[in-house]
Structure formats: C-alpha cells, structure tokens
Amino acid sequence: MTDTSAQDLWVGIDLGTQGVRALAVTGDGRLLGRGSAPLAGHRDGDRHEQFPSDWWEGACAALREALRAVRPARVRGVAVCATSGTVLLTDAGGTPLTPALMYDDGRAAAEARTAQEAGADVWDALGYRIQPSWALAKLLWLVRRADGGAGALRGARVCHQADFVTTRLVGRPVPTDSSHALKTGYDLRGGGWPHAVHDELGLAALDFPAVVAPGSVLGTVCARAAAVTGLAEGTPVVAGMTDGCAAQLGSGAWDIGQWNSVLGTTLVLKGVTARPLTDPAGVLYNHRAADGNWLPGGASSVGAGALARAFPGADLARLDRAAAAHEPSGVLSYPLVSRGERFPFLAPDAEPFTLGTPAGDGDLHASLLQGVAHVERLCLAYVRQLGARIEGPVAFTGGATGSAYWNQLRADVLGRQAVVPEHADPALGMAVLAAHGVGPADGAGPAAWSDLRPMVRVRTTLDPRPEVSRRFDEPFVALVDAWERRGWLPAPTAAYAREHG
C-alpha cells in the first residue's frame, strides 16, 4: 500500500452554480481531502445574480473541510476555476461595486448587440460573436445602469468570478487568466484587450486587469487567507481556467482530437485542436490551453438543472430506474435550464418544450435525460461540421456522472465509447494545473504534462449498446426538425446533423 503521508498535495477549487468544491490530490491521483459548501443564487426571469462574499466564504469552508486531515505544509499549490462569463466590478482593493452577474444572466441582450456591432471587425477576426451571456455585454449593462452614470464607475476594476477568490487568497488584486478573460473580449491570439472597442462602448474608464496564461503563479497565500482557509501562508496560487476547461483537464482529454463533455447544471463540450476552429455562427469559441494547443467548445443551456426544476426534491435514482423502461421516451423534450440557447446554435428566445404527453414521471424523466443527450449529440456533430477531429472515447465529467444510468444512456445516444474519471470534478483539473504551474520541487520550471497523467484515474469505461443506440436515431432527427422549424437551428447544420449526426 502506498504511503501518502509525505506526498506533495495539490489543491483545486471549483466555484460552481450551486456550490464551491475543493479537492486535495496527490501526484499519483489519490484524493486525500474533499470539501464543499453551498451557494445560493437569485433568479428572477432573465436575472441571475450571486453575492461575491458567498464565493469567498464558500471557498474558505470547502478548503477547511478538504484540508482537515492533512498538514497544510504539504500543499504545494492551489488553483481556482469558475463559471465562464460571470463578472462584476470592484474598487481597487477588490470590494464589490456592482452585483455579480452570473454566466447565464440574460439581461444584456441589447448590450450584446451593441458590443457585437461596435467591434464587428475585431470579433470576426477572432472568431467571436458577443452573446448576452458574455462578460463584455454584462459590463456594458452594468455601466449603463450605474447610479450617477458611467462616470461613477471610473477606475472600477473588472473582476471575474475566479479573480474575486484569488485576490483574497493573495491579499491584493492579481492578474486574471486568459481563459476567464475570453468572454470579456480578450484577444487570445494577439494577447491584448481591444482598447479601441472599449473606447467605442464607453468602457475605457474601467480598469481591465493584466492577463496571464493559465498555470502562471499569481502570488502566494497571505496570512489573512491562511487563517481562514487552512492553507499555509506562502502557498503558491496559480492562475486557473474556466470550469469547462478545468473539467477537461480533470478528464484527461489533453491530446488533439480528444473531447470532454461536462454535464452539471448545464452542458459544456470542449476538445483539443492544433489550431482554432473557425465558426461563422460565432457560437463556438476557442480557449488556449496551457500547453499552447487550442480548446474549442461551447456551453449549452440544457443540463441537469432541468431535472431539479421538473422534479424538485425527488429521488432521482428511483426516477432513473423508471426511465429505463422508456428507451426511447414517448415524448420529445428540449430541457433548457433557462431561456435562450448558446450552443450548438444561438437562439436567445429559445424556450424549453416537451412534445407530447408523457405516460408518467418515468417517461417525462426519460425524455429529459434523452433530450440532454440529443443536444450533446448535436454538439459533436456541429464541431465535426466545422472540421474538428473526434478520436477515441469522449470523457464524461461534471456532477451528472453520479448517475450510472445517465452515463450509459449518453454513450448509447452518442453511439460512442465514453470514459468517466474516478473524480469527475473541475476541481481536479485545477489541482492538475496547480501541479503543472508550480512544477517539481527542484524548481526546474513547469511540470511536463506527461508526468501529470497519473493524477487522472479512469473509473468507468462505457461501450454503447448498438441495439439501443439505433432506437435513438429517429428521436434525434425529430428534435433536429423541431429546432429547425422554430427557426433556432440553421438549415445547413440541421441537414448535416440528419446525415452525419
């Protein structure tokens, strides 16, 4: 039996929608500590906000729990991931000046159109299309509604969700990482903020932070943070990535052609390519990996959040057993968590629907599970349409992997082999990134990715059941037809999905 008492530990923190999670992991992938704390959001129609102070308090609580049984001095680095597009404005010291608008807050639709028009040439060159969920549109929304006008926010600091926590860990404002900065309009190819667009939008008076690559050391844990987190003072704090990128690191899908599907409250698909994928529709965007490869992908608004809304407080394991009798379901569901779709098509007015009358709770639950899997299948078809390679198994991560039934169903609907890591959590990806950024104890620089492979362990390999997979072809095409009839799914994508999906 391996003695873990003297091994170095790496800590990852994931700021999710419903909670904060922290993991303490050894270099060979042994989980020695896990902690979590709930987060409460404020939803009202298109509005979705959280209190930034809750992020910090949740991170402190999750860290204390994760480190309860280990010596803090063993932790050699920590990194933080968060939801993509969540943003607020703070003063120079990090105190919030505005609400924190969450990743799926949909109130900035008009501002997204304005930002898209103001920087159309820049965004076209970068392959971006500014959406209401993007942080740049939300910043414009916040500035337009500030008491006293834009002048009242002069010098206000742009702060992404992860930045709020890293600032408190280090004890001073720190650079943001290029992953969280992408939806604020950062140019990942040229390496800079689009200042001319900021001028055009009236955002030039804001303080946009310096940007560093994921894996860069931002500083070390300060005395105040050490006292409330359980981390040792002086522990390196490493620049993280968005939760989708973090989950991909935690999945082990690091090589060109590999893809990770993250299913939690919503669905995120991300893969690895040698060059950015060009998407004329602008619904797919390209993050930059710490190793220089590109991470194209997108975030859908379907996900497990639809289950909680349909069956609040229900025994989902019991519903899974009931759903097994409905393959396929007698109805078709499009299980959006909130209004508007972001990927694999852009439809701000899209709404969830169910076509037909379910035979009971088991049938309805089955239709929701299958609906998410059908969207996942369309996502993979879309990236193939754009020229991406998909090789080997798809890695499944995110909270929904706790359902063994849903995992197998998704493999069946996709018609592809899938793997589920032992620890399907974006926090694991941040532990991996912390280990990469800090590097070996001899100070020789960042750790080689090949040396970090043991940190990701596979729990389950799932093979699609051919006889079951065939049953889902017709419902998939029927959903494609329904999306196209509503004007949400472009005809060329629908045609490709019917033939190649």
TrEMBL record:
Domain Carbohydrate kinase FGGY C-terminal: 261-436
GO biological process, one term: D-xylose metabolic process
UniProt GO molecular function: kinase activity
Gene3D superfamilies, alphabetized: 3.30.420.40
Domain Carbohydrate kinase FGGY N-terminal: 9-250
Alphabetical keyword list: Carbohydrate metabolism, Kinase, Transferase, Xylose metabolism
Pfam families reported for this sequence: FGGY_C, FGGY_N
SUPFAM superfamilies reported in the protein's UniProt record: Actin-like ATPase domain
Domain of life: Bacteria
Family: Belongs to the FGGY kinase family.
Name by which UniProt lists this protein: Putative carbohydrate kinase
Organism the protein comes from: Actinacidiphila reveromycinica
